[in-house]
Write a structure and sequence with these properties.
heterodimer; A: mainly alpha; two-stranded antiparallel ribbon; 76% helix; B: alpha/beta; Rossmann fold; 4-stranded antiparallel β-sheet; 28% strand; binds adenosine-5'-triphosphate; binds magnesium ion
């Protein structure tokens, strides 16, 4: 019982981190038809910049905001200089974003050194609550809470604002959005920025969760995020949160019972979805 | 300058295919200009070229005296050209209301009036205001698409085969609505349904194999059995 609870909580927390990465990825793919392999790099940059600000200032909150800001900035730069010239060309996108991914990881080592950095939760998020036999680690609950908050926030944006509507409409039919007089390129930039901010937020939250961060962490999480994008349906935002929870939970349980198969099971899940229901487990786009 | 829109010998490629090879059309303000021609003649491509979705590589598109063939689609739309595509282009996952919200460029008194007007014209849209666009019937989708193009203060509407796939009674309804809008906007209509085309249209252009091959008033066409047989397959 206690074990089950812990594995579930752990899976949910991991799921939320994957969600923060996958949400941007799925919107960027759905709207802009761009495969962004550098997205994991933003996750790692969020972690490094955020943790560095956190240790320097002593405030985790400032660290979090710093990470999000870093994500926004890198997102804008990436869209403007790297992605814009290769819209519509998948091969070039893959090559250039993979290249950018490498550059981003190497830059981390140049700035912060090749060794991994340690990170701890702030005092108020350390430790756990005990309810009978069950031990609830505070920081995990915090991650789940933040993840749900971001989900609700973005969902609100997509449902209730004009730009949100345009994003959803754009995922369904880009040409028509433009034929209605909307400059979709501006919307691209906005979505890229938000998506990058979420990835960076995921990164900084991951720091104290795992205790250490290293330059390669972006790649590891990006693989899970890509699996989630496929399972949730490319361009499907609500699908991405469900799929992320699914992948998080499956990862958490598998890691405990059959650790060798943990990633393989998620890959298998993705392969099955691709074959049986390529539009994703959770309905169509939107 | 009585023409609102003028296509001067435009040529358009889609990929490596030379689809339009000389299309010239003059659209007079306040009239309904009908584009006719067999399947695959290039009618849809002509409208897409006007919208900048398949930009012309030669020739010019002049709207209100300004060349627009090199402008991006959204700018062309903002100049006051509304587009109702052949497949209606409904955002399937968005409700009727949300579809309209995406379309509305400026929220003001004038737009509200136009919205009221169009919802009166198509009560079904009001009835299914909260329904996802993808769940509407073919006719209702057509109405929604027309409403989206109409709601902004557009001076020109491009409407691509509004009767396609609709039951005769629904065609009549759509036709009526276009006849009503005719008083307020200039319309370029692609239409294979000759009954509809000849009822609504003031003048016609026939496109064949990517070229405009004939034009005149609708009255002339009605009387020209030879032309109808040759290009439209009707006698
Ligand atoms: N994306 C495309 N790629 C290649 N060829 C295309 C493409 N779109 C259209 N065409 C070709 O261009 C020609 C003109 O097509 P268009 O859709 O403009 O015809 P149309 O007159 O609207 O026909 P219909 O009455 O069937 O709608 C056709 O031969 C068509 O096969
Ligand atoms: Mg057509």
């Amino acid at each position: 019982m206690e074990l089950l609870f812990n594995l579930t909580l752990n899976g949910l927390a991991t799921g939320m981190l994957i969600f923060l990465l996958a949400a941007g990825l799925t919107l960027i793919f759905g709207l802009m038809d761009v495969l962004n392999f550098a997205h994991g790099g933003l996750f790692a940059w969020g972690a490094y910049s955020g943790i560095w600000i956190y240790t320097t200032t002593g405030s985790f909150l400032i660290g979090i905001f710093g990470a999000i800001l870093t994500g926004f900035l890198l997102g804008i730069i990436t869209e403007k200089w790297i992605i814009k010239p290769v819209y519509g060309n998948h091969v070039q996108q893959i090559l250039i974003t993979l290249g950018l991914m490498l550059v981003l990881s190497e830059m981390l080592k140049v700035i912060w050194g090749p060794n991994q950095l340690t990170a701890n939760p702030p005092e108020y998020l350390k430790g756990s609550w005990e309810i009978g036999d069950i031990i609830i680690i505070k920081y995990r609950v915090f991650i789940i809470f933040v993840g749900l908050l971001v989900f609700a926030g973005v969902q609100f944006l997509l449902k209730n604002t004009k730009i949100g509507l345009v994003v959803r409409a754009g995922v369904m039919n880009k040409e028509m959005v433009q034929a209605l007089g909307i400059n979709i390129k501006k919307v691209f930039m906005f979505v890229f920025m938000i998506g990058s901010g979420m990835a960076a937020l995921g990164g900084v939250l991951f720091g104290p969760y795992s205790g250490v961060i290293h330059a390669g962490m972006g790649m590891e999480f990006a693989i899970l995020a890509f699996i989630v994008v496929v399972i949730g349906g490319m361009g499907n935002f609500t699908g991405s949160v469900m799929a992320a929870i699914l992948v998080g939970l499956s990862g958490s349980f598998m890691a405990y019972y059959v650790p060798e198969l943990s990633l393989a099971v998620n890959m298998l899940l993705m392969a099955i979805v691709l074959i049986v229901k390529p539009q994703g487990l959770f309905g169509g786009k939107g | 300058m009585s023409e609102l829109l003028k296509l001067n010998n435009i040529e358009t490629y889609i990929g490596q295919y030379h689809i339009l090879q000389g299309v010239s059309v003059e659209v007079k303000k306040g009239e309904v200009t009908v584009l006719l021609g067999r399947n695959g003649a290039g009618k849809t491509t002509t409208l897409r070229t006007i919208m900048g979705l398949n930009p012309a590589s030669k020739g010019s598109v002049v709207y209100k005296g300004e060349e627009i063939q090199a402008l991006p689609t959204y700018t062309i739309a903002q100049k006051g050209i509304g587009y109702v595509p052949e497949d209606q282009g409904i955002f399937a996952g968005l409700t009727v209301e949300e579809n309209m919200k995406v379309a509305i460029q400026k929220e003001n008194e004038e737009t509200n009036k136009r919205l009221d007007y169009i919802l009166n014209l198509f009560p079904d849209l009001q009835k299914f205001w909260k329904k996802p666009g993808g769940l509407l019937s073919g006719g209702q989708k057509q109405m929604l698409s027309i409403a989206r193009a109409y709601v902004n203060d557009n001076e020109l509407l491009l409407i691509d085969e509004p009767s396609k796939g609709l039951a005769p009674i629904v065609v009549e309804k759509v036709m009526e609505s276009i006849l009503q809008m005719k008083d307020q906007t200039t319309i370029v209509l692609v239409e294979q349904n000759f009954m509809m085309a000849s009822t609504i249209g003031d003048c016609f252009y026939i496109i064949d194999d990517g070229r405009t091959v004939s034009n005149g008033t609708m009255k002339q066409l009605k009387e020209d059995e030879e032309m109808k047989r040759k290009y439209l397959g009707i006698a």
